[in-house]
Amino acid sequence: MRSKGKAGEWAFLKDMIHGADVIIEVVDARDIAGTRLPVVERMAGSRRLLMVANKTDLLPQGAELPRLGNGGFTISATTASENQRRALIGAIKDRTRARPARALILGYPNVGKSTLINMLAQRNAARVSPVAGTTKDIQWVSITSDLTVSDYRGVYPRHEKREELVRKGAMDVRGDEETHAHTFAQRIIRSRVLRAWMEKEFDLTLTGARSSEDVLAALARRRKLYVKGGELNIDEAARVLVRAMKDAPEI
Length: 251
Ligand SMILES: Nc1nc2c(ncn2[C@@H]2O[C@H](COP(=O)(O)OP(=O)(O)O)[C@@H](O)[C@H]2O)c(=O)[nH]1
Ligand SMILES: [Mg+2]
Fold this sequence. Notes:
Elements: H1 9-19, E1 22-28, H2 32-35, H3 38-44, E2 49-54, E3 73-74, H4 82-94, E4 101-107, H5 113-121, E5 139-144, E6 147-151, H6 162-167, H7 177-190, H8 192-202, H9 212-222, H10 234-245
Parallel strand pairs: 1-2, 1-4, 2-3, 4-6
Antiparallel strand pairs: 5-6
Helix pairs in contact: 7-8, 7-9, 7-10, 9-10
């Protein structure tokens, strides 16, 4: 487990987990297996653990909601109804008899932990940002008179590969968009779902696109992105694609 490589961080988290009544593990509904935190799950124990799969609104149209075991919850923090909000509060409180209950929210960077808290609290209590690594310290937010939830920075397994973190939206790639845009463009070529998404998102056609260069060139052409002298501005196309990636139907 790591976050900014700070020594003692893991020991701190362990204490936090032991002190909390409920552990809410937020995962990305588009890649549940890839955004789980097995170490946290083990430390929390199944009785206190509530898995919440967020961003269901980004799943491909017509896709079935993932089925989670052990009373897990699927939600879109940005579009949840009042009924869903109440149901989630109920599910959290069902995990403990303690009143007030203290729930600790943990998950990868950018899965929507802060957004989820703001939705529950019905106010902007936690800072939300598309940039991974925005929530720095632990922050307790009161949801109801008998439920308090904590916001914390994103965590992930220590040995996780950088490309995997990028794929999961857990790492800030500003300044290095081109490399990542090429990787993503290659996935677009291979995935029918991503290809259809990109064609619709940017109103273009990828018929005949065989390489990541073709994909970025198609985007540059469609957006009329040129450098001086009339060549396509692939750098800018890469930045546009990277910005759009976080809302793709597959990660
Ligand atoms: N489409 C969509 N975006 C979301 C959802 N929840 C959060 N986001 C976005 O994901 C990004 C990261 O959210 P944030 O709450 O800061 O994530 P955190 O790092 O886990 O606290 C922001 O751009 C949010 O607007 C959701 O349910 N659906
Ligand atoms: Mg946050």
